[in-house]
Amino acid sequence: MRLKNRAVSVGPFDSTAQSRGLLRILTAYLALMKPRIIVLLLITAVGAMFLAADGFPPVSALIATLIGGTLGAGGASAINNYFDRDIDRLMPRTATRPVPSGWISPGAALTFGISLLALSFVVLSWGANVLAASLMLAGGLFYVFIYTGWLKRSSIHNIVIGGAAGAVPPLVGWAAVTGSLGLLPILLFLIIFFWTPPHFWALSLILKEEYEHAQVPMLPVIRGERETRWQILIYSVILTGLSLAPALFGLLGPWYLAMAGALSGGLLFLAARLVHSGSRKQASVLFRYSLAYLALLFTAMVIDRVLLR
């Protein structure tokens, strides 16, 4: 009787343990997709959709872009985890990622990433159009092969050129609504392209020793922190001009111009202060501000184009 009672009591325990194990595995696969990055990418893609539609975009295209964009960006990130598993083990910031920590095997991460990229193409082709699907796939492949596979370990220009991958979502969003491209989506692409170096160079200043230990040729490792700080300021100046360009070209109105000017003024102030102080604390402040900068800039575009016209 005691043995029977023990067997009955073990069942729920095993079920609970299995449920926890499954949850951990699902959480690990979610982490492979780098969800925090996906959120910012989707903000820029959906923002471009509202701009293209001059209002609320078609529901089918919106759903397809949200799902397809998540799958595409998540798939590229999963493949990035596969390729970077050796250097991820060497950096405390990335050592706990699912592959280097042993939660997910390299082969499973690669298969998962390829599957997500393929599914993203199907979803966007069916729910939006082939142009949007092709742009998403091109951005993912660029991130995997050009940035991760080539530039990241070989050139100080890794972030500059590799940033093109992260600048693709507005093109995807615009194409999902219109089936074509134009001047405004190209400007959105350029804004994100020139936003990427100051954003990631600020992070690389904070994590310089980690990148150096992993032998990743980030700018502060190769050219030094002083040169990196100046490059952040230079790119911030270029970014300011590009952020104002949609209003200067008459594509957005005066409210956006004022908001873009205020946001860019804050960025320039932080970049100049970083050059002057050389403090990693200031680099951290600029890094966090750059995240808010991009999200608020696209929000201002949508408000100006959709609500104030």
How would you describe this protein?
The protein is mainly α. Helix content is 81%, strand content 0%. It has helices at 2-32, 35-53, 59-83, 85-88, 106-127, 130-148, 158-166, 169-178, 183-206, 208-213, 219-222, 225-248, 254-277, 280-307.
Question: How would you summarize the topology of this molecule?
Answer:
Layout (H helix, E strand, L loop, with lengths): L1 H31 L2 H19 L5 H25 L1 H4 L17 H22 L2 H19 L9 H9 L2 H10 L4 H24 L1 H6 L5 H4 L2 H24 L5 H24 L2 H28 L2
Helix pairs in contact: 2-3, 2-8, 2-14, 3-5, 3-6, 3-8, 5-6, 6-7, 6-8, 7-9, 8-9, 9-12, 9-14, 12-13, 13-14
Strand content: under 5%
- Give the beta-strand count: 0
User: If helices are DSSP runs of H or I spanning 4 or more residues, what is the number of helices?
Assistant: 14
Mean pLDDT: 92
> How many strands, what sense, and barrel or not for the largest sheet?
none
Look at the helices and sheets and give the structural class: mainly alpha
Low-confidence stretches: 1-13
Spell the H/E element sequence: HHHHHHHHHHHHHH
* Coarse morphology: globular
Terminal CA distance: 78 Å
State the share of residues found in helices, binned by percent.
over 70%
Gyration radius, rounded = 22 Å
Features:
309 residues, mainly alpha, 14 helices, 81% helix, globular
Short précis:
This protein is mostly helical and 309 residues long. 81% of the residues lie in helices and 0% in strands. Helix 3 (59-83) packs antiparallel against helix 8 and helix 12 runs antiparallel to helix 13 (254-277).
